[in-house]
Write a structure and sequence with these properties.
homodimer; alpha+beta; 2 helices
């Protein structure tokens, strides 16, 4: 079966996020006043697996090995069957 | 009123996405076979505005001026009132 997978990675709470603070400062320079800026990355792909559980396990391994750094990132896996 | 805003930016269809193809190749080297890899960036922040329409207009200007490159990016704005 073909599954469409979405992996959301974001920095763990308390980690400094230089990208977000740069965006906030740059917006302030343009006179936009925004707060609590956060950034999230989404990686979407299609994956062939025998079952939803197998797909989930594979994606979880991918996250641990390559897609995220589990020390500093939180990740969330969404799987939709096709 | 305080609005919580989410801006999703992704490359327009047909644009080369080196980040996505690098991820796909790296996963292939680890024996995971995935297809149609895409990447999406989300920027979330809180914004003070008088109405939802005003908030939307401000965020649209931010996207045009700073958050996206309208030549190569598509963007989507989600606004939730608090």
């Amino acid at each position: 079966m073909n599954f469409s997978v979405e992996v959301k990675t974001s920095l763990k709470k308390g980690m400094l996020n230089p990208e977000a603070s740069t965006i906030e400062k740059a917006l302030a320079l343009l006179d936009y006043d925004v707060n609590n800026t956060q950034t999230i990355n989404i990686i979407k792909f299609d994956l062939d697996a025998e079952s939803r559980d197998e797909a989930y396990n594979q994606v979880d391994q991918m996250c641990q090995k390559l897609l995220c750094n589990p020390v500093i990132h939180d990740y969330e896996i969404d799987i939709c069957g096709e």
